[in-house]
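Subject: for your reference before the review

Hello V.,

The reviewers asked for a structural picture of the protein, and I figured it would be easier to keep everything in one thread rather than splitting it across files. Below is the amino acid sequence we used in the manuscript, unchanged from the supplementary table.
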Amino acid sequence: MALPSFIPLSRRKDGDSSQPSPPKTTNTTTPPYALSTSKFLSKATRIRRFFAYLSSFLFLISLIFLILVEIGNLNAHHPVLPSIYFIKLDLSNIIPRSVPNSILINSIARTLGLHDFYQVGLWNFCEGYGNEITDCSKPRRMYWFNPIDIILSELLAGATIALPSNITDALTLVRIASHWMFGLFLTGACLAVPAILFTPLSIYTRWASLPLTILTFLTALTTTAATIIASVMFIIFKKAIHSATETVNIQAEIGVKMFVFMWIASGAAILGWLIQFGECCCCASKRDVKTGRRKGSKKAYGASGGGNGDGAGGTQEKSRGARRRWISSNG
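And here is what came back from the structure prediction:
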Protein backbone atom coordinates (compact mmCIF):
# COMPACT_ATOMS: atom_id res chain seq x y z
CA MET A 1 0.00 0.00 0.00
CA ALA A 2 1.40 3.30 -1.08
CA LEU A 3 1.88 5.85 1.60
CA PRO A 4 0.32 9.27 1.13
CA SER A 5 2.75 11.91 0.04
CA PHE A 6 2.83 15.38 1.52
CA ILE A 7 3.83 18.48 -0.42
CA PRO A 8 5.85 20.92 1.59
CA LEU A 9 4.27 24.31 2.24
CA SER A 10 7.08 26.08 0.40
CA ARG A 11 6.41 24.04 -2.76
CA ARG A 12 2.69 24.82 -2.49
CA LYS A 13 3.54 28.48 -2.49
CA ASP A 14 5.79 27.95 -5.51
CA GLY A 15 3.02 26.06 -7.24
CA ASP A 16 0.54 28.82 -6.58
CA SER A 17 2.93 31.26 -8.14
CA SER A 18 2.70 29.34 -11.41
CA GLN A 19 -0.97 30.26 -11.73
CA PRO A 20 -1.66 32.96 -14.29
CA SER A 21 -1.74 36.45 -12.79
CA PRO A 22 -4.06 39.17 -13.93
CA PRO A 23 -2.64 41.09 -16.85
CA LYS A 24 -0.82 44.23 -15.93
CA THR A 25 -1.85 47.26 -17.86
CA THR A 26 0.53 50.09 -18.25
CA ASN A 27 -1.12 53.36 -19.07
CA THR A 28 1.33 54.89 -21.45
CA THR A 29 -1.25 57.17 -22.87
CA THR A 30 -1.02 60.81 -21.86
CA PRO A 31 -4.08 61.90 -19.89
CA PRO A 32 -6.39 64.04 -21.96
CA TYR A 33 -6.03 67.13 -19.78
CA ALA A 34 -2.32 67.28 -20.68
CA LEU A 35 -2.77 66.70 -24.38
CA SER A 36 -1.36 69.43 -26.57
CA THR A 37 -2.98 68.41 -29.84
CA SER A 38 -4.67 71.30 -31.59
CA LYS A 39 -7.89 69.37 -32.19
CA PHE A 40 -8.30 68.36 -28.56
CA LEU A 41 -7.48 71.83 -27.21
CA SER A 42 -9.94 73.34 -29.64
CA LYS A 43 -12.69 71.08 -28.30
CA ALA A 44 -11.75 71.53 -24.67
CA THR A 45 -11.79 75.34 -24.91
CA ARG A 46 -14.72 75.75 -27.26
CA ILE A 47 -16.82 77.63 -24.66
CA ARG A 48 -14.07 80.16 -24.00
CA ARG A 49 -13.41 80.48 -27.73
CA PHE A 50 -17.09 81.21 -28.38
CA PHE A 51 -17.22 84.01 -25.82
CA ALA A 52 -13.87 85.45 -26.94
CA TYR A 53 -15.06 85.71 -30.54
CA LEU A 54 -18.43 87.03 -29.35
CA SER A 55 -16.64 89.77 -27.43
CA SER A 56 -14.62 90.70 -30.51
CA PHE A 57 -17.79 90.77 -32.61
CA LEU A 58 -19.54 93.04 -30.09
CA PHE A 59 -16.69 95.54 -30.27
CA LEU A 60 -16.90 95.38 -34.06
CA ILE A 61 -20.58 96.32 -33.81
CA SER A 62 -19.68 99.12 -31.40
CA LEU A 63 -17.04 100.46 -33.80
CA ILE A 64 -19.42 100.40 -36.77
CA PHE A 65 -22.06 102.43 -34.96
CA LEU A 66 -19.45 104.80 -33.53
CA ILE A 67 -18.28 105.49 -37.07
CA LEU A 68 -21.87 106.22 -38.09
CA VAL A 69 -22.16 108.64 -35.17
CA GLU A 70 -18.94 110.39 -36.14
CA ILE A 71 -19.63 110.74 -39.87
CA GLY A 72 -23.29 111.68 -39.46
CA ASN A 73 -24.33 115.06 -40.87
CA LEU A 74 -21.01 115.51 -42.70
CA ASN A 75 -22.26 115.55 -46.29
CA ALA A 76 -25.34 117.47 -47.41
CA HIS A 77 -25.74 115.44 -50.60
CA HIS A 78 -25.30 111.92 -49.19
CA PRO A 79 -28.53 109.85 -49.16
CA VAL A 80 -28.10 108.69 -45.53
CA LEU A 81 -25.71 110.92 -43.58
CA PRO A 82 -27.95 114.03 -43.43
CA SER A 83 -30.55 112.03 -41.48
CA ILE A 84 -28.04 111.30 -38.69
CA TYR A 85 -27.90 114.31 -36.35
CA PHE A 86 -28.08 115.12 -32.64
CA ILE A 87 -30.70 117.86 -32.74
CA LYS A 88 -32.60 119.80 -35.39
CA LEU A 89 -33.83 123.36 -34.84
CA ASP A 90 -36.80 124.58 -36.89
CA LEU A 91 -36.75 128.38 -37.31
CA SER A 92 -39.21 128.62 -40.18
CA ASN A 93 -41.70 130.40 -37.91
CA ILE A 94 -39.32 131.97 -35.41
CA ILE A 95 -41.74 134.81 -34.66
CA PRO A 96 -44.80 133.46 -32.78
CA ARG A 97 -48.21 133.80 -34.38
CA SER A 98 -49.33 135.85 -31.38
CA VAL A 99 -47.13 138.70 -32.63
CA PRO A 100 -48.88 141.00 -35.14
CA ASN A 101 -47.70 140.51 -38.74
CA SER A 102 -45.73 137.39 -37.70
CA ILE A 103 -45.99 135.85 -41.17
CA LEU A 104 -44.53 138.96 -42.78
CA ILE A 105 -41.74 139.19 -40.21
CA ASN A 106 -40.82 135.52 -40.71
CA SER A 107 -40.61 136.01 -44.46
CA ILE A 108 -38.42 139.07 -43.91
CA ALA A 109 -36.13 137.06 -41.61
CA ARG A 110 -35.80 134.44 -44.32
CA THR A 111 -35.00 137.13 -46.85
CA LEU A 112 -32.32 138.50 -44.54
CA GLY A 113 -30.54 135.12 -44.63
CA LEU A 114 -32.16 133.03 -41.89
CA HIS A 115 -32.63 129.39 -42.91
CA ASP A 116 -35.67 127.29 -42.07
CA PHE A 117 -33.75 124.72 -40.04
CA TYR A 118 -30.32 123.86 -38.62
CA GLN A 119 -29.19 120.39 -37.58
CA VAL A 120 -26.14 119.46 -35.54
CA GLY A 121 -23.58 116.71 -36.00
CA LEU A 122 -20.34 115.88 -34.19
CA TRP A 123 -18.13 117.90 -36.55
CA ASN A 124 -20.42 120.57 -38.01
CA PHE A 125 -23.97 121.75 -38.68
CA CYS A 126 -26.14 121.69 -41.78
CA GLU A 127 -28.86 124.14 -42.87
CA GLY A 128 -31.64 124.24 -45.39
CA TYR A 129 -35.09 125.32 -46.45
CA GLY A 130 -38.23 123.20 -46.21
CA ASN A 131 -37.06 119.58 -46.02
CA GLU A 132 -33.96 120.01 -48.18
CA ILE A 133 -30.43 120.61 -46.91
CA THR A 134 -28.69 123.30 -48.92
CA ASP A 135 -25.28 123.44 -47.26
CA CYS A 136 -23.14 122.11 -44.41
CA SER A 137 -20.41 123.93 -42.55
CA LYS A 138 -16.77 122.89 -42.75
CA PRO A 139 -15.94 120.10 -40.25
CA ARG A 140 -13.96 121.29 -37.22
CA ARG A 141 -12.26 119.56 -34.32
CA MET A 142 -13.85 120.07 -30.89
CA TYR A 143 -16.90 121.54 -32.60
CA TRP A 144 -19.79 122.88 -30.55
CA PHE A 145 -23.10 124.25 -31.79
CA ASN A 146 -23.70 127.96 -31.12
CA PRO A 147 -26.99 128.97 -32.75
CA ILE A 148 -26.59 132.64 -31.79
CA ASP A 149 -23.32 133.05 -33.69
CA ILE A 150 -24.69 131.08 -36.64
CA ILE A 151 -27.88 133.12 -36.91
CA LEU A 152 -26.12 136.45 -36.52
CA SER A 153 -23.43 135.52 -39.04
CA GLU A 154 -26.05 134.66 -41.67
CA LEU A 155 -28.25 137.72 -41.23
CA LEU A 156 -27.48 140.94 -43.06
CA ALA A 157 -25.11 143.35 -41.35
CA GLY A 158 -26.79 145.11 -38.45
CA ALA A 159 -29.73 142.64 -38.23
CA THR A 160 -30.17 140.89 -34.89
CA ILE A 161 -32.55 138.49 -33.19
CA ALA A 162 -32.81 138.55 -29.41
CA LEU A 163 -32.84 135.09 -27.83
CA PRO A 164 -34.05 134.36 -24.28
CA SER A 165 -31.52 134.20 -21.46
CA ASN A 166 -32.26 130.53 -20.66
CA ILE A 167 -31.12 129.57 -24.17
CA THR A 168 -27.97 131.67 -23.73
CA ASP A 169 -27.24 129.97 -20.39
CA ALA A 170 -27.73 126.53 -21.93
CA LEU A 171 -25.08 127.33 -24.53
CA THR A 172 -22.39 127.39 -21.84
CA LEU A 173 -23.28 123.83 -20.90
CA VAL A 174 -23.35 122.86 -24.58
CA ARG A 175 -19.85 124.23 -25.19
CA ILE A 176 -18.23 122.37 -22.27
CA ALA A 177 -20.12 119.14 -22.80
CA SER A 178 -19.50 119.17 -26.57
CA HIS A 179 -15.73 119.24 -26.08
CA TRP A 180 -15.88 116.24 -23.73
CA MET A 181 -18.31 114.41 -25.99
CA PHE A 182 -16.11 114.95 -29.04
CA GLY A 183 -12.97 113.63 -27.33
CA LEU A 184 -14.69 110.65 -25.74
CA PHE A 185 -16.35 109.49 -28.96
CA LEU A 186 -13.04 109.54 -30.84
CA THR A 187 -11.24 107.81 -27.96
CA GLY A 188 -13.89 105.09 -27.82
CA ALA A 189 -13.57 104.43 -31.55
CA CYS A 190 -9.77 104.27 -31.35
CA LEU A 191 -9.84 101.85 -28.40
CA ALA A 192 -12.41 99.63 -30.12
CA VAL A 193 -9.91 98.72 -32.87
CA PRO A 194 -7.35 96.94 -30.61
CA ALA A 195 -10.24 95.46 -28.63
CA ILE A 196 -11.49 93.77 -31.80
CA LEU A 197 -8.03 92.47 -32.70
CA PHE A 198 -6.78 91.30 -29.31
CA THR A 199 -9.81 89.90 -27.45
CA PRO A 200 -9.43 86.49 -29.20
CA LEU A 201 -6.05 86.16 -27.43
CA SER A 202 -7.91 85.37 -24.21
CA ILE A 203 -8.46 81.85 -25.63
CA TYR A 204 -4.83 80.93 -24.94
CA THR A 205 -4.40 82.03 -21.34
CA ARG A 206 -6.40 83.71 -18.61
CA TRP A 207 -3.46 86.03 -17.98
CA ALA A 208 -4.33 87.75 -21.25
CA SER A 209 -7.81 88.48 -19.94
CA LEU A 210 -6.48 90.94 -17.33
CA PRO A 211 -5.01 93.54 -19.74
CA LEU A 212 -7.85 92.87 -22.17
CA THR A 213 -10.37 93.55 -19.41
CA ILE A 214 -8.70 96.91 -18.74
CA LEU A 215 -8.68 97.75 -22.46
CA THR A 216 -12.31 96.79 -22.98
CA PHE A 217 -13.34 98.61 -19.80
CA LEU A 218 -11.79 101.85 -21.08
CA THR A 219 -13.50 101.33 -24.43
CA ALA A 220 -16.89 100.81 -22.81
CA LEU A 221 -16.31 103.68 -20.36
CA THR A 222 -15.42 106.28 -22.98
CA THR A 223 -18.19 105.22 -25.35
CA THR A 224 -20.87 105.14 -22.66
CA ALA A 225 -19.70 108.42 -21.09
CA ALA A 226 -19.85 110.17 -24.47
CA THR A 227 -23.32 108.75 -25.10
CA ILE A 228 -24.62 109.88 -21.70
CA ILE A 229 -23.14 113.37 -22.13
CA ALA A 230 -24.67 113.76 -25.59
CA SER A 231 -28.07 112.47 -24.46
CA VAL A 232 -28.27 114.69 -21.38
CA MET A 233 -26.90 117.75 -23.14
CA PHE A 234 -29.23 117.79 -26.11
CA ILE A 235 -32.29 116.82 -24.07
CA ILE A 236 -31.60 119.78 -21.74
CA PHE A 237 -31.03 122.03 -24.74
CA LYS A 238 -34.31 120.91 -26.28
CA LYS A 239 -36.22 121.64 -23.07
CA ALA A 240 -34.59 125.07 -22.80
CA ILE A 241 -35.72 125.91 -26.32
CA HIS A 242 -39.28 124.68 -25.76
CA SER A 243 -39.54 126.75 -22.58
CA ALA A 244 -38.94 129.91 -24.62
CA THR A 245 -41.76 129.46 -27.13
CA GLU A 246 -43.51 132.59 -25.85
CA THR A 247 -40.60 134.79 -26.96
CA VAL A 248 -39.38 132.97 -30.06
CA ASN A 249 -41.02 130.08 -31.86
CA ILE A 250 -38.14 127.61 -32.28
CA GLN A 251 -38.96 123.92 -32.52
CA ALA A 252 -36.33 121.39 -31.49
CA GLU A 253 -36.27 117.75 -32.61
CA ILE A 254 -33.95 115.06 -31.25
CA GLY A 255 -32.24 112.90 -33.88
CA VAL A 256 -33.62 109.42 -33.25
CA LYS A 257 -31.12 107.63 -35.49
CA MET A 258 -28.15 109.28 -33.81
CA PHE A 259 -29.41 108.38 -30.34
CA VAL A 260 -30.13 104.77 -31.35
CA PHE A 261 -26.66 104.42 -32.89
CA MET A 262 -24.99 105.86 -29.78
CA TRP A 263 -26.74 103.53 -27.38
CA ILE A 264 -26.19 100.45 -29.57
CA ALA A 265 -22.47 101.24 -29.61
CA SER A 266 -22.46 101.69 -25.83
CA GLY A 267 -24.48 98.55 -25.14
CA ALA A 268 -22.26 96.40 -27.37
CA ALA A 269 -19.11 97.78 -25.70
CA ILE A 270 -20.49 97.10 -22.21
CA LEU A 271 -21.42 93.51 -23.10
CA GLY A 272 -17.99 92.93 -24.64
CA TRP A 273 -16.30 94.20 -21.46
CA LEU A 274 -18.48 92.03 -19.23
CA ILE A 275 -17.51 88.95 -21.24
CA GLN A 276 -13.81 89.72 -20.90
CA PHE A 277 -14.26 90.38 -17.19
CA GLY A 278 -15.96 87.00 -16.77
CA GLU A 279 -13.19 85.21 -18.67
CA CYS A 280 -10.69 86.26 -15.99
CA CYS A 281 -12.08 83.52 -13.75
CA CYS A 282 -14.44 81.44 -15.89
CA CYS A 283 -13.98 79.02 -18.80
CA ALA A 284 -10.78 77.00 -19.23
CA SER A 285 -8.09 78.45 -21.49
CA LYS A 286 -5.68 76.39 -23.58
CA ARG A 287 -2.97 76.94 -21.00
CA ASP A 288 -5.30 75.69 -18.25
CA VAL A 289 -6.00 72.49 -20.18
CA LYS A 290 -2.32 71.88 -20.96
CA THR A 291 -1.21 72.32 -17.36
CA GLY A 292 -4.18 70.39 -15.92
CA ARG A 293 -5.55 73.29 -13.84
CA ARG A 294 -8.89 72.93 -15.61
CA LYS A 295 -10.28 70.30 -17.93
CA GLY A 296 -12.53 72.42 -20.10
CA SER A 297 -15.43 70.99 -22.06
CA LYS A 298 -16.47 67.44 -21.14
CA LYS A 299 -17.29 66.66 -24.77
CA ALA A 300 -13.59 66.82 -25.61
CA TYR A 301 -12.86 64.04 -23.09
CA GLY A 302 -15.65 61.86 -24.42
CA ALA A 303 -14.21 62.18 -27.88
CA SER A 304 -10.67 61.37 -26.71
CA GLY A 305 -11.83 58.12 -25.12
CA GLY A 306 -13.63 56.86 -28.20
CA GLY A 307 -13.76 53.49 -29.90
CA ASN A 308 -10.16 53.55 -31.15
CA GLY A 309 -8.86 53.31 -27.57
CA ASP A 310 -6.88 56.53 -27.72
CA GLY A 311 -6.69 58.52 -24.52
CA ALA A 312 -7.01 57.60 -20.87
CA GLY A 313 -10.69 56.79 -21.12
CA GLY A 314 -10.10 54.01 -23.69
CA THR A 315 -7.13 52.58 -21.77
CA GLN A 316 -9.03 52.40 -18.48
CA GLU A 317 -11.95 50.64 -20.18
CA LYS A 318 -9.61 48.03 -21.63
CA SER A 319 -8.04 47.41 -18.21
CA ARG A 320 -11.40 46.91 -16.55
CA GLY A 321 -12.48 44.46 -19.30
CA ALA A 322 -9.29 42.38 -18.97
CA ARG A 323 -9.65 42.21 -15.19
CA ARG A 324 -13.25 40.96 -15.47
CA ARG A 325 -12.23 38.23 -17.94
CA TRP A 326 -9.41 37.01 -15.64
CA ILE A 327 -11.71 36.82 -12.62
CA SER A 328 -14.38 34.88 -14.52
CA SER A 329 -11.84 32.36 -15.86
CA ASN A 330 -10.22 31.74 -12.45
CA GLY A 331 -13.26 32.00 -10.24
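For the response letter, the relevant points are probably these. The first strand starts at residue 87 and ends at 90. The radius of gyration is 37 Å.

Happy to draft the paragraph if you're swamped.

O.
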